[in-house]
Write a structure and sequence with these properties.
- By secondary structure, the protein is an alpha+beta fold.
- Helices cover 41% and strands 16% of the residues.
- The chain has 17 helices and 12 strands.
- The protein has a 7-stranded mixed sheet, with helices on both faces. A 5-stranded antiparallel sheet has the order 1-5-4-3-2, with helices on one face.
- Helix 6 packs across helix 7.
- The two termini are 35 Å apart.
């Protein structure tokens, strides 16, 4: 990672941190003289800094990635020429990266093999290189750099990809660009992985979901700060009109934004009146910030959908949801919802149990039926009476009836351990009518209202 920070980014970071108190809340300055940049047309661009000497990196890997990106943009490949190590500790303190056309092939060694067909000579004795040294603080600094090549540079991206250093497909700029475009279309890392792996050449290693997520996280962090800052300033301006507006920002250690939650005065008032049932659902990165959008939705006495609040999240992990639910509760005057409807996300379920231990949690019925169609089709095809018996089991009115019918199904069809139907049975208190009929859900059984809010935004 390049440790240098551009001047405009320094100003941005300092303003952001100054507006946040020790508790992590934004402090409102009515007479703030901070100017907000017009960020509507802001677009992230991959740029490589030509001022190479003096660049500082945390690791050797960061240095390699930087020079390899530089090489990709300028049309050549690289390799490690030599590494100097301390004789006592065997720790590297100096390394030299060179153009892949540096030096010449050893013809004497080849001649000893007899009449063997030699490969085409590709090296030209190019003298381009980058030299780094390790400082006392443990960081690596570029102290020598030569960008003079004695050969033609590759001008087309498809040909640049043929250089061996760019053959690590997930690190290649073309692959990163493709991942970025797919991410902007709203695809998850697991879906992006499938698309990318179908397009790569057979000789390349498969790209993993984690590699996709890591690359997108780095890209998102590089440009998210400015747009997030604009959103925060928007909320600060709105506070002048609505003194009951609530918003809170979660930050990384370096001061860059991670999560944000907000609710205006009208939403907070609506929650006090109609907050018995909350529908919570997450849509994945279908917004300009490339972050999961998570609205809290309810229904009023006219059966109209109402918005209680919204959030942009860094990820969909349990600790992120716990942070969100705790701030939602704080925003809503510590009034716990009586019931919540969500999809079958384990992280959400665990977070609800942790933050809202007395809230009745229900799985979205639409998602349950969708999974039934996918997983129970073989049983319906194999057994003509299974569909009717399964329907009777699901619609059982009492817990005793539900359990007795389950035992009958198990005995008749001998379900395998670990199958979908046995796993969904273990979670019966979250979806079965017999376990939920004593709780008020305002006539809602699915997260459809939350999904309609997604389309509105």
């Amino acid at each position: 990672m390049d440790s240098r920070v551009q001047p405009e980014d320094e100003a941005l970071e300092s303003n952001l941190i100054d507006d946040i108190d020790a508790n992590g809340y934004l402090v409102v300055h009515s007479d703030s003289d901070v100017e907000v940049e017009n960020i509507k047309d802001f677009e992230f661009e991959k740029e490589v800094d030509d001022d190479v000497i003096g660049q500082v990196f945390d690791t050797l890997g960061d240095t390699y990635d930087f020079y390899n990106r530089y090489a990709f943009v300028h049309g050549f490949g690289i390799r490690i020429r030599s590494t100097f190590k301390d004789k006592t500790t065997n720790e590297p303190y100096r390394r030299k990266y060179v153009c892949n056309k540096e030096g010449f092939k050893d013809l004497k060694r080849d001649s000893s093999k007899g009449d063997v067909k030699r490969r085409r000579e590709l090296r030209t004795g190019c003298e381009a290189f980058l030299m780094i040294s390790k400082g006392k603080d443990g960081k690596w600094v570029v102290d020598k750099f030569n960008d003079s090549h004695n050969h033609e540079l590759t001008v087309t991206p498809t040909k640049v990809m043929k250089h061996r250093s760019h053959g690590k497909f997930h690190r290649a700029e073309a692959c990163k660009s493709l991942m970025s475009e797919l991410s902007q279309s709203g695809l998850k890392p697991s879906q992006i992985r499938k698309v990318v792996n179908t397009m790569k050449s057979p000789c390349e290693n498969d790209v993993t979901s984690k590699q996709c997520a890591d690359i997108l996280a780095v890209e998102r962090k590089q440009y998210k700060g400015k747009e997030f800052y604009g959103l925060i300033k928007h909320f600060q301006d709105k506070l002048i009109e609505d003194r009951n507006l609530y918003f809170v920002v979660d930050l990384f250690e370096d001061g860059s934004p991670r999560n944000i939650f907000w609710a205006d005065g009208r939403s907070r008032d609506a929650y006090i009146k109609f907050g018995d049932v909350v529908v919570f659902d997450v849509t994945y990165m279908t917004n300009k910030f490339k972050m999961p959008f998570a609205p809290f939705v309810g229904v009023n006495h006219h059966r109209q959908s109402i918005l209680f609040g919204g959030a942009l999240l860094e990820n969909e992990k349990q600790d992120t949801f716990e942070w969100l639910f705790k701030n939602f509760l704080k925003c809503m005057f510590d009034k716990y919802p009586s019931a919540m409807i969500t999809d079958q996300d384990k992280a959400i379920c665990n977070a609800i149990q942790s933050v809202f231990p007395n809230t009745r949690h229900r799985y979205c019925s639409w998602h349950i039926k969708k999974h039934e169609t996918e997983h129970l089709r073989p049983l319906k095809v194999q057994y003509s009476d299974f569909e009717e018996l399964h329907k009777q089991w699901v619609k059982s009115n009492t817990i005793e009836e539900f359990e007795s019918r389950w035992e009958f199904l198990c005995g008749k069809y001998n379900f395998q351990s670990g199958s979908w139907i046995t796993e969904i049975y273990k979670q019966r208190k979250y979806w079965a009518k017999a376990f939920l009929k004593d709780c008020f859900f305002a006539g809602m059984t699915s997260s459809g209202r939350s999904e309609s809010i997604h389309s509105f935004f």
